[in-house]
Write a structure and sequence with these properties.
Radius of gyration: 21 Å
Order of helices and strands: EHHEHEHEHHEEEEEEEEEEEEEE
Strand order of the largest sheet: 6-5-18-15-8-9
Shape: globular
Strand content: 25-35%
Distance between the termini: 18 Å
Length: 361
Amino acid sequence: MYDVVLLTLGSERDAPGGCGSGGACCGGATGADTGPTSQTDTGQATSDQATGQVNADQAGSDQADTGQCATERPRVPVLACADALNARGARVETVTARSDAEIDAVLARFDGPARPDGLTWPDPDSKTRLVIATASDGQLRAVLRRLVKRYAPAPSKRPADLPGNRTLPDLPPVAVLPLDPARGGTHRDLAAQLGLPRDPAAVAAAVLDGTPRRLDLLRNDGGSVTLDGALLGAADDAGRPLHWRARVEVDDTILTDGAEPLLACAVGNAGGYATLNDVTLLTAPDPADGQVEVAVAVPVVVRSAWGRKRVRLEVRRARGRAVSVLPREGRVPYLDDGVESELTRKRSWWVEPGAWAVWSI
């Protein structure tokens, strides 16, 4: 029978701004965490995106990954999932992690046997399974980011058995236990988009009886990851979109060179940012196709037959392995897996096909 760890992200500081505002609480990154670790390669191309209001820079975006922290006590869905697992004979441990170090201590249980090259590598035959109780997609991202930092080898230590289109091995599968049932409806978090179970008993069944469903992961050159997608742009207090400029490239395709104004840019691994108001940005984002879909919304002035000017919205799209966004002026707000931040310099994302997995029935 399996050992199952039920991991919840929590904080010793429950005041507003406490979680993720410093000390890497809830699995957020500190300033030093935005660069590569001894086993992490961040030298490839990726990107950043923005929308909405902003309250952090890129380092702060990882610090805020976890959104609202869990409380001291395990929440009801966690207890219900533990009961369902225990009833099936699993050995269950509930863990509340309040720092990257505490997350890493849990993830160390998935390390494989020592390798001749000295790399820390996941054990493909592990009898331990991980359930991540998430109040937001940012919390799920926080744990995946630590998995990447743990297992991604430095470029100088790239092993021969690593696939040519990847910079990290297959990460251990995880189960997702959503703590907010409402996010499966109107808001559609990543679990809802993927059709994952939300009922604690169904999650327990997926952990014990399911199979890994492998999904693409976006890494970025700031040292973090993206599971769903990102949206760049902002609006004023009245809700009117603000213009901004940036050079956006997808592989060898230039969607905009930075000379014209933009209203939004969407980078999609899944479909969380496929639409903006009534505008379709992404047409078919697929988290398992090995590509990222990118769209920019450009206001274009046209003249009618009577010579009158009007503005229409032109959406340009491209698909590829990597995307980069270079702001031409000022700071560009963005959302990345629901986490608010600002883009102040060039940021790039690249696709790691099938790098992470979820337990699914």
